[in-house]
Amino acid sequence: MLGIQSSKGISGRDVEMMAEAISRAGGQTFSFHLLPSGLVNPSTDNFIGSGVVFHPEAFFRELHQLESQGVPRVRERIHDSSRCHLNFALHGVVDELSERELGTGQIGTRKRGIGPAYGAKATRDGLRVIDLYDESFEQKLRSLAQGYRRRYGELLGYSVEEELERYRAHKEQLRPYIVDAVEYMTAARENRRSVLVEDVDFSIDRLKESVVDLFQQSNMGTLAKRCKNLVEKL
Q: What is the pTM of this model?
């Protein structure tokens, strides 16, 4: 099961709907926000693709929940692209402040930081999972936080030191799950493995569309379009 891209307010709903259908068959309710829903099938290998903004705490929280529900070998069957951009606690704070600025015109985000994380990706200010293992990680995160602090000042109730401390732990916790996306998919192709794509198409080329449109339609497109764009999203 290949998870390509996750978008604010859409992916969670779509995947939860899928999970609800699974729960009717299996007698349990599974809730997915970051992990691919294919994990409930013990015969699948699952991969979080590079288009997803990755939140380590959510990743481990959902893995623990699936384990507590008896889903077998979930930690052995999930892999994460080293090219995923990170969704920091910083982005969640910015998400909330952005909503507050809009007043009565609020979008209604879940304040999980997904929108700001994609924004940082689009402006090339974001950090990828692989950056965790580079000596420049700390300086880059401090620079990102400083940029937001220049905009929001003291309203930015955020500690970069606390974030850095958390990510020092995440660095080793995540290591077993990280793979190179191109190598992973190349191996799948060479081994003639079947690939099921789970995707909500909120891609960078759609940033020009209105937020309302993005919330109201998932623009699933055709299978041919998905397969054509698959390599670009890895």
A: 0.77
